[in-house]
Write a structure and sequence with these properties.
homodimer, 143 residues, alpha+beta, Arc Repressor Mutant, subunit A, Dna Ligase, domain 1, 2 domains, 5 helices, DNA-binding
DNA sequence: ATGTATGCAAAACATTTGCACCTGG
DNA sequence: CCAGGTGCAAATGTTTTGCATACAT
């Protein structure tokens, strides 16, 4: 149950937090902006403030529950942390995001960091391209 | 001569543009924020506005003269485009940026994009870690 | 109860834009 | 001369913060 995730993160179990977790959970494979989360909750009849969405997302990030990505464009997108590390490929037309993992790349990264004398903590890899989906068309907002 | 770079980019040769190009050129291996460029030019006695710095950087980017990166943290950093593609490794303590290129990684990226049905346009890869420089200490601003 | 969370409005940032004036070719 | 460039101030878009109230435990 999600309440437990919150508990173990040292966060009180409150309506906004549960609703946000639920939304992120039900938005499989989706990467949402704070604004999108806010709008969807409002449309669903919830009472929540945009500031709270940002605050909670930051807390979730600190707790390792979500990851914040800065793809192109001003807004950050948030993704529920479900399982192992992966990188992203983003369609520059429709904005769709897919995930992938490639051990060969990971290995090369570790080798490169070591060669350059860095203790590797983290990395971001994002590919940008055009996907081949039939319905792929320029679209911006989430409903 | 830098004037020529501007000319062939369809941009008039003006003071601000030349000064900015110079600064970027003399800042070898450096990745500067718009604000940092602005401050350095002001300190150097130049008369320039922050808005102009942003405008010119955008034009430079469109002309392929500079690249804009969104490393962690709010501000974008700009780097003079000198030669071939490369990726970055950033020290999370001192902010130092090093560049690298790895053909194996590039190759895997192309393969991944193809497998997922994307026509690859671009990518960003940034490693974050701690460098082993003697003087590596938390520092934020450029002088 | 009591320390945390929340909503709202205002603040803080980074970046962009409108506009009157200046300048390179 | 004149289209394009510039500085300044104001606008924008996103994220953060202050504060009084509301809620979880």
């Amino acid at each position: 149950m999600e309440s437990q995730d919150l508990r173990s993160a040292g966060l009180k179990v409150t309506g906004p937090r549960l609703k946000m977790l639920e939304l992120l959970e039900n938005t499989h494979g989706r990467h949402l902006t704070a604004e999108a989360i806010y709008r969807q909750l409002i449309e669903a009849g919830e009472e929540i403030g945009l500031a709270t969405v940002y605050r909670v997302l930051t807390q979730f990030e600190a707790a390792g529950l979500v990851t914040r990505h800065h793809f192109e464009g001003g807004q950050a997108v948030f993704e529920l942390e479900r399982g192992p590390h992966h990188d992203h490929i983003v369609c520059i037309r429709c904005g769709r995001v897919e995930e992938f993992y490639d051990e060969a790349i990971e290995k090369r990264q570790r080798a490169i960091a070591e060669k350059l004398g860095f203790k590797l903590h983290d990395h971001t890899l994002t590919l940008y391209g055009e996907c081949s989906r039939p319905g792929c068309q320029r679209q911006n907002s989430e409903s």
